[in-house]
Design brief:
The complex is a heterodimer of chains A (557) and B (88).
Chain A lengths: L4 E4 L1 E4 L2 E8 L16 H25 L9 H5 L2 H12 L4 H19 L1 H22 L13 E5 L15 E6 L7 H9 L3 E3 L12 E5 L4 E4 L3 H14 L17 E6 L2 H9 L4 E6 L13 H14 L4 E5 L34 H18 L2 E6 L5 H13 L4 E6 L2 H5 L1 H4 L5 E4 L1 H8 L18 H17 L3 E3 L10 H7 L3 E4 L4 H9 L3 H12 L4 H20 L1
Parallel strand pairs in A: 3-4, 4-5, 5-6, 9-10, 9-16, 10-11, 11-12, 12-13, 13-14, 14-15, 15-16
Antiparallel strand pairs in A: 1-8, 2-6, 3-7, 7-8
Helix pairs in contact in A: 1-3, 1-5, 3-4, 4-5, 8-9, 9-10, 16-18, 18-19
Chain B lengths: L1 E6 L8 H12 L5 E5 L5 E2 L3 H6 L7 E6 L4 H12 L6
Antiparallel strand pairs in B: 1-4, 2-3, 2-4
Classes of the chains: A alpha/beta (557), B alpha+beta (88).
């Protein structure tokens, strides 16, 4: 047996998992120069059969109801006779069978992509169909999530939404990727499924299928060939993790309240979060309800949608973020110009200068739904940069009858001038993903910049600390609703900096609640001071781990 | 040749779910039906990808065409479907 080796990446979803590693099967790239089949008619028949088999598989997945919109209507696409015909045309020109299907799919993908928005996303589904059918034609393993019949740690270069569609009901107990950072799709997905995950671990590429590993989503480490003693430890840890030690509202060890809230977007998130143990919603991403719309949703439609969500959270708080759209997250009904640098373009609240009617309609609908349900509603605007913008939004929202108005702090200018900006509103919520991207000038989607997007970066913590001080002087509460809020090691640091609520993917709440309950507010403050002066993220994170470990030993003693 | 013009009634347009419902209904007909929206060549009504790539939006005029025995009745049924909200 090989000796144990440890590799490091970014821990993005906490927990300890021990299982053999299995790599996601990459799709085959078809060869245009392969040998074509002898009998074109027979080859067309093979394509027809392969697609029919894929349609059957997808229909089974859709029937199980696990994939949601991600593979919506995939079976209907795979079963399209026009797709067989398009492939037959290429086969007729003497091209190899699998490549003919590839070309047929590419043709439709470019048409879907030219339609933009929702349709463009269906191109991803169509490529998944192609990859499955090509695997059948060539007799190679099916790409996608492996089904080994035992628990495993899923390893991949990186994971996309289409790759992970079947993850929720697979036997994967942890995720490990070579690329990606703290805000990557894998990180967000892992937290929403409550799976331990390490991303950005490039050395993981050297691990072969079946290697036993221990993955520590808190420390960001991957241990290959662990000793049986370590494996036993990991299993016990995983077992105890499944039973949270604390329940109810978030509290420090000395009963200082830190509200624990859920981030929601789709109606499915909402119903799942509504059943879970949390104090309400800290971030309701309303644009998720309208992503595929080409006409602006009407007041009535919006009232209906919001009423459903509010009803599920009766007696709890719901913090609504007004439509957050821009060139990177296009809403087809907002007719925004193309931009060279969308992250710095017309996004969030800025879109209301182009289409003011859309924000007003939304505010009207929100107030109507609030009055219908009596929920405790707060409304905040995304991407506020100046005090003037905050004042204008507050006037508009209050004019429509919103009682509690806030803003998101995602832009460094708003954080630096928090003492001015917060004068005009009732509360603030810090979006750490964007605030990190703008503060460290690092594109959120850039794999190679993950270290700069780390929420433990002292510059980011310093800005959060400044916002909290300014808010305390004005008597305004500050929450965090970015990815940082879901990290149990960071939660006590944020509490120590003065944050009074944390909002995260619903399954992440339990671990954060447990971590907060281990320390007093005074200890959280000490930890926060340490993290601010730690100099680099890794040191700060390690310090918090040691601190929390010592505290839990004290409590158990 | 029979023809019907109908105003698309699905608020989210002919995206995946409404398109699948429509294509499924069109697939088991004895006559060949085509669908067209303004400015685009007609596509086969039983082609999911064809119908999706029409990019038909709520309120668009959609033209259904069919030929052969029973064409009128088939178009009647499919036109009724398109004019409804299929995304419920």
């Amino acid at each position: 047996m090989s000796a144990s080796t440890t590799m490091t990446g970014y821990g993005v979803s906490t927990g300890l998992a021990s299982a053999p590693l299995i790599r996601m099967t990459p799709p085959v790239i078809t060869d245009p120069c392969g040998t074509p089949g002898d009998d074109p008619e027979h080859e067309v028949q093979r394509v027809r059969q392969a697609l029919a088999q894929v349609a059957e598989q997808l229909a089974a997945i859709e029937a199980s109801g696990t994939t949601g919109a991600i593979l919506e209507a995939g079976a209907a696409m795979a079963g399209d006779p026009a797709l067989v015909q398009a492939a037959a045309d290429h086969i007729g020109q003497g091209l190899p069978t699998a490549h003919s299907l590839s070309l047929a799919v590419d043709g439709y993908c470019s048409q879907l992509e030219s339609l933009g928005g929702y349709m463009a996303e269906r191109a991803t589904d169509l490529r998944d169909i192609r990859n499955r059918a090509v695997a059948l034609l060539l007799g190679v393993p099916m790409p996608g999530i492996p089904r080994p019949g035992h628990p495993f740690i899923l390893a991949a270069e990186d994971l996309s939404p289409a790759d992970t569609a079947g993850l929720a009901d697979s036997e994967a107990v942890g995720l490990l990727t070579e690329r990606g950072g703290p805000t990557s799709h894998t990180a967000i997905l892992a937290r929403s499924l409550g799976l331990p995950a390490v991303v950005g671990c490039c050395e993981a590429a050297t691990l072969s299928d079946g290697t036993p590993v221990i993955l520590d989503g808190e420390a960001g480490t991957v241990e290959a060939h662990p000793s049986s003693e370590r494996r036993q430890q990991a299993l016990e840890h995983a077992r105890s993790r499944q039973q949270p030690r604390t329940h109810g509202p978030g509290r420090t060890a000395d009963q200082h309240a830190i509200a624990l809230l859920a981030n929601i977007g789709t109606p499915r998130d909402a119903s799942r979060a509504a059943r879970a143990d949390n104090e309400g919603v800290g971030l309701f991403r309303t644009e998720f309800l309208f992503l595929d719309r080409r006409e602006a949703p009407t007041v009535d439609e919006q009232i209906h949608a919001y009423t459903q969500v509010f009803t599920a959270f009766t007696g709890r708080v719901v913090t609504v973020r007004t439509l957050d759209a821009g060139s990177d997250k296009p809403l087809p009904f907002l007719r925004l110009p193309a931009e060279d640098n969308p992250a710095l373009g017309v996004r969030g609240l800025r879109t209301s200068t182009i289409e003011p009617g859309i924000l007003e309609t939304q505010l009207k609908a929100l107030v109507a739904a609030q009055q219908r349900t009596g929920v405790q509603m707060k409304v905040m605007a995304p991407m506020v940069s100046t005090a003037q913008e905050a004042a204008q939004f507050a006037d508009l929202a209050r004019g429509h009858g919103v009682q509690t108005v806030g803003i998101m702090i995602e832009v460094p200018s708003a954080a630096l001038l928090a003492h001015e900006v917060l004068r005009h509103v009732d509360f603030a919520s810090i979006g750490t993903n964007d605030l990190a991207q703008y503060t460290l000038a690092a594109d959120r989607t850039a794999h190679t910049l993950a270290h700069l997007l780390d929420p433990w970066q002292p510059a980011l913590l310093t800005l959060i600390s400044q916002v909290c001080s300014a808010a305390r002087a004005l008597g305004r509460p500050v929450g965090v609703c970015g990815e940082a809020a879901a990290d149990p090691l960071l939660a006590p640091v944020l509490a120590g900096l003065g944050v009074s609520s944390l909002s995260m993917a619903a399954p992440a709440v339990a671990a954060v609640r447990d971590a907060l309950a281990r320390l007093t507010l005074h200890e959280c403050k000490e930890l926060a001071t340490g993290a601010l002066s730690a100099g680099e993220p890794r040191t700060a994170r390690r310090m918090s781990g040691t601190f929390l470990g010592a505290a839990s030993e004290r409590q158990e003693a | 040749m029979a023809q019907r013009v109908v105003i698309l009634g699905s608020r989210s347009g002919l995206h995946a779910r409404p398109a699948a419902t429509f294509v499924q209904a069109a697939a088991h007909k004895t006559v060949r039906v085509t669908v067209a929206v303004d400015g685009k060549p007609p596509v086969a009504a039983d082609s999911m990808l064809g119908v999706m790539t029409l990019g038909a939006a709520y309120g668009d005029q959609v033209t259904l065409t069919a030929e052969g025995d029973g064409a009128e009745a088939v178009l009647e049924e499919l036109a009724a479907l398109l004019s409804k909200e299929l995304d419920a």
